[in-house]
Write a structure and sequence with these properties.
By secondary structure, this protein is of the alpha+beta class. Helix content is 27%, strand content 20%. It folds into two domains: 1-271 and 503-529, D-Maltodextrin-Binding Protein, domain 2 (3-Layer(aba) Sandwich), CATH 3.40.190; 276-499, Roll (Dipeptide-binding Protein, domain 3). Keywords: Plasmid, Signal.
Length: 529
């Protein structure tokens, strides 16, 4: 086994032993109330990646693996695994004491069904993540072998309960998976069982007394509440009527107020595998954004620190390119061109002059429409900040705010936009979260949150293709360094800030956020003091 291969490993021994050791005694009992906003459209995280869904279902389902804060995989249902020297075969050894909530054992057949018939075919990201999985062998009930067409090191980062939930074949294998009756009555093997969904109000999850991690979960139940009014959500946390909220469910200006209370703890840990990125995407197939100098000028114009301080109230850091700094832990982060230099406005004006867009008598060079991501008040304020920044370089921006379906169609189907704010997760590996925004094969009309700028180049495509199959971490690091340099220079997207989501937690509870998935974790370790 070569130490410089990121995914080539056998995770057994101490790690597996530690996970199977009886849990240290903690207080048992109690109900944790989680606020999730908005209410999920369904509880089928295997066919939809809408953010609110997995905040619920990650407690119901298990994944093959989980992850630590350094983004290293650790055992879950798979207690150990090996990757072949050529990277084309991954063998998982499953625990033998895992049962689904209906009492049936979880076996290799369930993993095979989940990957080949569900995630590979209908999961929005799984279609790409599992594309190189050509077959899954089940030599016995507790051995699973992934056979790959090409090495896929990123695949090892997509096996959590939130991203790749394991489904019971005997239930979900009957009927059409897209319209399955258990989409809203899920059955998994996780620490909590689905009990009830009162639409518009709450989902109730009760303790799985047969959970394979001995002694866990500690809580009696989790109640996930849906509260439309933002001030009411804040008040529920302040009064102790709710105990945890994340993923932007609490207005950022209210988080500071709640953090001052002795009854509340606020953390920004728990999004290391999500890595949210605030962006400005330019329509590179439409003048004036078909001109690289114009795109670079827009990038220079944005005052990132002002946006961080005044729109997201300090919960962020300036982006350095398409790859989040969270990837420093596994060596894949690289910084691109520095667009936040002190003389950035002077540089931007010079670039626009060189591009052939002089200022007119009114002080403006040209006029554009800036479409605002329809996600709430923060995004409207961000739009106003962008409008002010662009005016400093002679670009007049008219703001447009539409409902989500209209915006998605305009940006990703009709490509009827000039400049739009955007929001993409880097996720757990650049192949999963970064490539989709800049690769040629992700220019897919009608598919949302992919390459909407329609910029691409054969050179950067080749770098991404090579990085996707490279098993040597040092080689991947070099490839991504080259990619970031070229994308940053071409500037189809202005990467503005890495958003640090705050999670608000009642001080009555401990060990709520214990992984880089944060509120997408399974809460098996959470307990009431």
């Amino acid at each position: 086994m070569k130490p410089n291969r990121f995914h080539l490993a056998v995770y057994a021994g101490l790690m597996a032993a530690a996970l199977s050791t009886p849990a240290i005694a903690q207080n048992r009992g109690g109900t944790l109330v989680q606020i999730t906003q908005p209410e999920p459209p369904n509880l089928a995280s295997y066919i939809s990646t809408a953010g609110p869904i997995a905040q619920v279902t990650s407690k119901i389902f298990d994944g093959l693996l989980e992850y630590d804060f350094s983004l290293a995989p650790k055992p879950s249902v798979a207690e150990s695994w090996t990757v072949s020297e050529d990277g084309k075969t991954i063998t998982f050894k499953l625990r033998q004491d895992v049962k689904f909530h209906d009492g049936q054992p979880l076996t290799s057949a369930d993993v095979q069904f989940t990957v080949m018939e569900v995630l590979k075919k209908v999961h929005p990201r799984g279609i790409a993540t599992y594309k190189d999985v050509v077959s899954v062998d089940t030599p016995d009930a507790h051995t699973v072998v992934f056979n790959l067409a090409n090495p896929a090191p990123y695949l090892m980062m997509a096996l959590s309960s939130a991203e790749s939930p394991i489904l019971p074949k005997h239930i979900y294998g009957e009927g059409d998976i897209k319209t399955h009756p258990n989409a809203n009555q899920p059955i998994g093997s996780g620490p909590f069982k689905f009990t009830d969904w009162r639409k518009g109000e709450l989902v109730r999850l009760d303790r799985n007394d047969d959970y394979w991690q001995e002694g866990k979960p500690y809580l009696d139940r989790i109640v996930v509440r849906f509260i439309a009014d933002s001030s009411t959500r804040t008040a529920a946390l302040e009064k102790g009527e709710a105990h945890v909220a994340g993923q932007g469910a609490v207005p950022y200006n209210d988080v500071k107020k709640l953090a001052a209370l002795d009854s509340i703890t606020v953390t920004t840990r728990g999004y290391e595998m999500i890595s949210p990125m605030v962006e400005l995407m330019m329509n590179t197939q439409k003048p004036p954004f078909d001109n690289q100098k114009v795109r670079q000028a827009i990038n220079y114009a944005i005052d990132r620190q002002f946006v961080i301080d005044n729109v997201w109230f300090g919960f962020g850091k300036a982006a350095k390119g398409p790859i989040s700094s969270n990837f420093e832990s596994n060596g894949l982060f690289a910084a691109g061109k520095d667009y936040s230099v002190p003389d950035r406005i002077d540089i931007a004006n010079k670039l626009l002059d060189e591009a052939g867009f002089p200022k007119g008598p009114d002080g403006f060079r040209f006029e554009i429409t800036h479409d605002i991501t329809p996600y709430g008040e923060e995004w409207q304020r961000f739009g106003e900040a962008v409008q002010q920044d662009l005016a400093k370089i002679g670009v007049k921006a008219t703001l447009r705010y539409e409902d989500l379906p209209t915006w998605l169609k305009r940006v990703y189907t009709d490509y009827d936009f000039d400049l739009t704010s955007n929001f993409l997760f880097n996720l757990a590996d650049p192949v999963i979260g970064v490539h989709r925004g800049i690769h040629s094969d992700r220019i897919k009309p009608g598919t949302v949150f992919v390459n909407g700028s329609r910029w691409s180049s054969p050179e950067t495509d080749a770098l991404m293709n090579e990085a996707a199959v490279a098993t040597d971490v040092f080689k991947r690091r070099d490839l991504y360094k080259q990619l970031v340099e070229k994308v940053s220079e071409a500037s189809p997207i202005a990467y503005v800030l890495e958003l640090n989501y705050p999670t608000v937690i009642s001080s009555e509870f401990e060990d709520v956020v214990v992984s880089p998935l944060g509120i997408y974790g399974n809460f098996a370790s959470a307990y009431k003091k």
